Amino acid sequence: MEKFRELDHWLSKHRFLTGDNLNYTDFLLFETLNNHNACMPDLLEPFVNLQRFHKEVMSQAGVKEFVTSERNPSAICSPLATWKAGTV
């Protein structure tokens, strides 16, 4: 959670990870947040800037269309991976 707090603080002063322009690192964080959200839907609740960031990336042209399409892999991990908490 500490890293999420640090990222949230950083994003309180910056639109994206490296400033005001979207780049590939933002998509890496976006995907990580999506994966965490699949396992723990309330995880971002205390982090308003991470929520804003996620919404802003999702609103970029083509992102929502891809995320909700059949082309987006539904599995977070390999089918051979296991997670003791259950199936994702």
TrEMBL record:
Task: Return the Gene3D superfamilies for the record.
Answer: 1.20.1050.130
**Pfam families with a match to the protein in the record:** GST_C_3
Specify the superkingdom.
Eukaryota
Spell out the InterPro entries in the cross-references: Glutathione-S-Trfase_C-like (IPR010987), Glutathione-S-Trfase_C_sf (IPR036282), GST_C (IPR004046)
Q: Where is the GST C-terminal domain?
A: 1-76
Under which name does UniProt file this protein? GST C-terminal domain-containing protein
What is the species listed in this Swiss-Prot or TrEMBL entry? Ramazzottius varieornatus (Water bear)
Top-level taxonomy = Eukaryota, Metazoa, Ecdysozoa, Tardigrada, Eutardigrada
Name of the gene encoding the protein in the UniProt record = RvY_16441
